[in-house]
Amino acid sequence: MRHGKKFNHLGRTASHRKAMLQNMANSLIEHKRISTTVAKAKALKKFVEPILTKAKNDSQHSRRVVFSYLQNKQTVSELFNRVADRIANRPGGYTRIIKTGNRLGDNADMCIIELVDYNENLLAPVTEKKAKTRRSRRGGKSASNETTATEAVDESSTQEEGTDTTEKNKDE
């Protein structure tokens, strides 16, 4: 019976599930973003967020605890040296799951799980685009104001010419 057992077993034995989550956590810390199924991403989020919280305190004990979960020296050093600096001020919620649709082979729900502080597209400051101005052939700002009436006349004449060519094509 599964009374009170809330975590997803992912259809794997305990040792296989532990190894899979360990490998996925190593890949997430190394690459900052991985693509996987939604169920695995949710399980990975529960697995990796306490590890990231532990990494905020850089001590011998916390390094050993994190190493017991990840079993990879390079990943642990990357986590404590680079990642912990970026997440130091964040009180939690270190990962983001973005759903990307369904996989072609088996129609599984796919997603991208990423570290929040490493998405450059979302962290970039929003810059307002300049309003596009209409350019004239004559030059300065005062010339553009005077030519607006003549441009309107020119546009109407080009539209009439365009209608003449379409009428000729219909006759042929």
Considering DSSP H and I runs of 4 or more, what fraction of the residues is helical?
55-70%
Number of helices: 6
> Tell me, what's the shape?
extended
CATH class of the largest domain: Alpha Beta
Main β-sheet description: 3 strands, antiparallel
| Strand composition percent | 5-15%
Topology:
Elements: H1 14-31, E1 33-37, H2 38-55, H3 60-70, H4 73-86, E2 95-102, E3 109-115, H5 120-123, H6 141-171
Antiparallel strand pairs: 1-3, 2-3
Give a description of the structure:
This protein has 172 residues and is mainly α. It has helices at residues 14-31, 38-55, 60-70, 73-86, 120-123, 141-171; strands at 33-37, 95-102, 109-115. The longest helix is centred in the C-terminal third of the chain and has 31 residues, at 141-171. 13% of the residues are buried. The chain folds into two domains: 14-123, 50s Ribosomal Protein L17, Chain: A (Alpha-Beta Complex), CATH 3.90.1030.10; 133-172. A three-stranded antiparallel sheet has the order 1-3-2.
What brief labels describe this structure?
172 residues, mainly alpha, single chain, 2 domains, 12% strand, extended, three-stranded antiparallel β-sheet, 50s Ribosomal Protein L17, Chain: A
